[in-house]
């Protein structure tokens, strides 16, 4: 980090996260539910376990939290697993789960996991959040943590939501953008006040937001014209504005259009523009995909122009190409780059050898992705059971996770 105060905050945040996860694991243990980790395609001679895996639901989206994972199945069911110290799994307990467990019986269209909380949109357009709430990130008007979903306001027009470590943002069907939670570094985009917002606040008056991504102390979003906007902390240039000055409201990143995806990490950001991949901000682990120190403006990663999707959180980045391959780079201490090693990478390396990745892609200290057959695969840190394979053993290459039938 380039600032002493931000460096101390970062150290405390990471230490607190590790202690909470460790405490939860020691006190609650891991409850293993019925799930099967599969590593290939079943054939006609498959046994009962393999046949059960084939009958299990496939998934349409996935999100990776600090040490938990959630996914939506093709029937609209929501499943969560991993660390549960704040109730972020939404099952009414604070018990860790090393295999997927369904969250109620409702059907859902969008989900995103923060460090210790989760938010999701139901098929009726209502928004629900659960888990840690010490900074009002659940948006229910309180700072009380919840172990089961609570509705955020009464609106029925939510389209998508994105949860960061301690703040959350969502977009409604009318194109308006709303944020809530911690605002210490003006990451809510509504000015320096309030310090904490426990209900959603509209960000400006624009009605053309199409996507939003929440980092630790900053936020970025894309509008319908393909323009990119960022705000909040710029301690390492993560806003991409060419300087280290914070922004209390959305500021446009350059003048280019053609942005189709953006992902905010801890103190870095990556985006896809016209098929090219760009990153900026902190680069201590190589999470920008280039060598050297932090960058205050977008720098292109290589010359490939077939990038289709980007994911970033903590100090790791992943992206998929139109040929169906997935590539990751940055911090790799738990194998979250997925290349079979625990070596930090300052340039994209392929995660596994498959070229059938599509749809969802998510990464924090663990990564997950969806393949063309709807199968879900995860890798990296597994200290809270977030890989969903019934263990707490890290994995440096993708392994399949099967939802219970």
UniProtKB/TrEMBL annotation:
<dbReference type="InterPro" id="IPR009091">
    <property type="entry name" value="RCC1/BLIP-II"/>
</dbReference>
<protein>
    <recommendedName>
        <fullName>Alpha-tubulin suppressor</fullName>
    </recommendedName>
</protein>
<dbReference type="InterPro" id="IPR051553">
    <property type="entry name" value="Ran_GTPase-activating"/>
</dbReference>
<keyword id="KW-0732">Signal</keyword>
<dbReference type="Pfam" id="PF00415">
    <property type="entry name" value="RCC1"/>
</dbReference>
<feature type="signal peptide">
    <location>
        <begin position="1"/>
        <end position="44"/>
    </location>
</feature>
<dbReference type="Pfam" id="PF13540">
    <property type="entry name" value="RCC1_2"/>
</dbReference>
<dbReference type="InterPro" id="IPR000408">
    <property type="entry name" value="Reg_chr_condens"/>
</dbReference>
């Amino acid at each position: 980090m380039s600032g002493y105060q931000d460096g101390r905050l970062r150290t405390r945040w990471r230490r607190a996260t590790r202690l909470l996860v460790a405490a939860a694991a020691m006190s609650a243990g891991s409850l293993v539910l019925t799930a099967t980790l599969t590593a290939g395609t079943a054939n006609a001679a498959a046994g009962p376990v393999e046949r059960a895996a084939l009958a299990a639901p496939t998934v349409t989206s996935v999100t990776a939290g600090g040490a938990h994972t959630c996914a939506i199945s093709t029937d609209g069911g929501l499943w969560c697993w991993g660390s549960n110290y704040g109730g972020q799994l939404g099952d009414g307990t604070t018990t860790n789960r090393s295999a997927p467990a369904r969250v109620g019986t409702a059907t859902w269209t969008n989900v995103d996991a923060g460090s210790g909380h989760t938010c999701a949109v139901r098929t009726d357009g209502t928004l629900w959040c659960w888990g840690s709430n010490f900074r009002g990130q659940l948006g229910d008007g309180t700072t009380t943590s919840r172990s089961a979903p609570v509705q955020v306001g009464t609106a029925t027009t939510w389209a998508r939501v994105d949860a960061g470590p301690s703040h959350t943002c969502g977009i409604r069907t009318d194109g308006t953008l709303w944020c809530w939670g911690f605002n210490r570094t003006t990451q809510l985009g509504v000015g320096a006040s309030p310090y904490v917002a426990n209900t959603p606040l509209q960000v400006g008056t624009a009605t053309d937001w199409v996507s939003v991504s929440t980092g630790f102390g900053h936020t970025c979003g894309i509008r319908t014209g393909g323009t990119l906007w960022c705000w909040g902390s710029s301690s390492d240039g993560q806003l991409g504005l060419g300087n280290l000055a914070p922004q209390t409201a959305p500021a446009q990143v350059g003048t280019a259009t053609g942005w189709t995806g953006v992902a905010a990490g801890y103190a870095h950001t990556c985006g896809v523009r016209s098929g090219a991949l760009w990153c900026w901000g902190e680069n201590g682990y190589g999470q920008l995909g280039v060598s050297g120190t932090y960058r205050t403006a977008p720098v292109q990663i290589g010359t490939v122009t077939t990038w289709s999707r980007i994911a970033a959180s903590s100090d790791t980045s992943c992206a998929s190409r139109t040929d169906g391959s997935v590539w990751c780079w940055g911090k790799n201490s738990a194998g979250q780059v997925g290349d079979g090693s625990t070596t930090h990478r300052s340039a994209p390396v392929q995660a596994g050898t498959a070229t059938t990745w599509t749809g969802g892609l998510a990464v924090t200290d663990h990564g997950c992705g969806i393949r063309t057959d709807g199968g879900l695969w995860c890798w990296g840190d597994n200290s809270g059971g977030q890989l969903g394979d019934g263990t707490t053993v890290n994995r440096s290459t993708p392994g399949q996770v099967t939802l219970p039938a």
